[in-house]
Amino acid sequence: MTADTPASEIQSPSDSLRGVPDVDAAREWLNARNIQDIECIVPDIAGVARGKMMPTGKFFSGPVMTMPASIFAQTISGDYPEDDDRFQHNATDGDLYFRPDYSTLTTVPWETDPTAQLIHDAYTREGDPLETAPRNVLKRILKLYEDKGWEPVIAPEIEFYLVRPNTDPDYPLEPPRGRSGRPEVGRQSYSISALNEFDDLIDDIYDLSEQQGLEIDTMIHEEGAAQMEINLRHGNPLALADQVFLFKRTIREAALRHEMYATFMSKPMSNQPGSAMHIHQSVIDKETGLNIFAGENGEETPLFLSFIAGHQKYLPKVSCIMAPFVNSYRRFSKTSTAPVNVYWGYDNRTVGLRVPYSNAQARRLENRIPGSDANPYLAIAASLACGYLGIVNGLKPDAPKADDCTDRARSLPRGLPEALGKFEKAEEMIEVFGEKFVATYRAIKYEEFETFMSVISPWEREYLLLNV
Q1: Residue 270: which domain range?
Q2: Could you tell me which residues come within 8 angstroms of residue 454 by beta carbon, excluding any fewer than 6 positions away?
Q3: Is pLDDT above 80 for 410?
Q4: Number of H helices, E strands in the chain
């Protein structure tokens, strides 16, 4: 846009599908769409949308939105961890204060009445960003890069399954029936005809996404039965984390329209591959606009190698963020395409850290460890933290692997307690994430593990009931 641009071609904030600059533009945007209600939402530790629905008039005329502090100390089952020497609840469960980020304003296209959604940030009574709010955690890590004059760029890939409705958790999940009336039984990786089985649903996903200003780069059919993958366009980490957060809501809603469930469980079916959230990462020098991973002649820089080395050293210490639930560790199997190590290599999908072939300016590292069940804010923050620590500490990676590393020694924890043990003792993680976040996160996850251990599985009844 230039000074000579005709007024008729200048987009008003009210024309934007997603995001406005300030409260005045928000009021104009909502009025233009006759929005009656606003979902004021915030992602919790698990990535679940918490918040309040309020009339538009109340949003602008009422006080700042508040919610109890306990929403950031809640397990996925709705329980709360017990106090210990590192974690203590807010004794009075007093209020937190939530401020809207108007750049996230968009519609809720599946609602029958005109409704908007707006992501909020959490603050203490004193006005400080809440250390345990996932969006603030990611901002904290991005500030480390900003202080160095760098700007990370990421592109996430999110896998998920479509399954038949399942109202009884004792029964295994099954693939849904497509337009042919038959469920998938084999592996159909990259199959267009298998993707076409769900044309109507995919059309709804694209339509609902477009109405929210969410940009899908590509959609493919993945290896599993009725397993899909959505690739998002590269961009700012916070904006992309917001998009993943909203995409999950969107895909679930679209699936329900077609009498299906969409699940982002890491391993929903025992005989199918797991679902990942791969994160492609590069870093731009803000002054020059150039990728710091490429030198003047396109060669790899020491910073790029240190970025890789940081992931190799620190990913095992943040695996409880990349694989946040008991189910997550079922995905790490040498019989599947999921990585079981933190080796790196060029265009090698049997290692946890892949360097795709690209031109120098697009040079990036793909972190293949996170599951699709991971909180996108925390997974992106943890991955960037690993790379940052590698750079500032001048770490060097081992030699790249060019062969099949599926059976190589496992360097990732095989269960949640082991992963939490590495996380809570890592001084580097406490320094970059803050003690309060580390203490709260590990308390929540230990409580979730204890809840899981209280449930007797079908395997135990099958093999132990009459044999031991």
Answers
A1: 141-465
A2: none
A3: no
A4: 13, 14
